[in-house]
Design brief:
The protein is built from three helices and 19 strands. The chain is mainly beta and about 325 residues long.
Amino acid sequence: MMSPHQMLLRACCFVVAVPIFFVNAHAQLVPGTGTRLAKVGDNFEDPDWKWIPNGEKASREQDEQVRSPTGFSANRHWFESPKRGMPDFIQRVETPAEGLPDSRGALKIQTLNSGIPGRPTGKMEQDDLIMSCASKVGAISVSRNPSCTTRIWLPPFDQWEKRSGTHFGYRVDLKTTITEKKKTFLISRTERKQEDYWPGFFIEFHSKSDPKFKEDEAKLLIRGNQLGHEVPGPKLTPGWWTLGMSMTSDGRVHFYASPGVNDLTAADHLYSAFPYSYQAEYFATHFYNSCNLYDGRTWSTPFIIDDPAIFVLR
């Protein structure tokens, strides 16, 4: 079985797959059910909302450099990933049309230099924007049935980066316990350790500038099945979408999506699985990936998010 890290690298490649029929959720929990956690989340209504970069971004995944201090939002609800760094453009903007009622602010996310600062690779790279959760309320046991939701605005296709592949991600940080075999001279033993993994959604674009495709289209990919492979989801239209994930006490992850900004319902269920064959034990947070071709010139597709929230049933 491929590790989550290996599977993450595979996200750089677009996936063309035959659509599947999704099965009904087992022990279904609609994201947004229960109590919304007041200490985490954001609605971007504060006109003074701002991001504080704190110098060059981190790139520990590529060259072991964190470049502390890392970036964060002034309200301390968001922080830069020490693993991959932060998007280059994180700014409060006016909520696009047909957004949540009474919403006046949302957050635009876009990146340019997505890898090691000053070292373009000509390959797809990604930056992360992570919500502060575990540091505020602790890691949440799946026995409490946590879930998370977000609204994401997709721009018209003529504003997308002219590239086929992954453009954006919305994912969760989960923790489980695995057993590893350790072998030393004449001695074999097993050790148990905590393992992080990151199921979620990727937004994939098929560009008409690519000879493989006759027209622009976007699709939702779900990461993933028991091997961590992407599962094909619905086609995406420009405008607002609501995405959500829930974790039930059996350690399963449930994926939901719906066009528009209405709260998710049972009818919006897409897929349920034990991604990577892992049984979730704790939910740490949710976060976003901003992806582009890192050539030093090409900006990523501009996505706008609103009202990301975390809930618990118990």
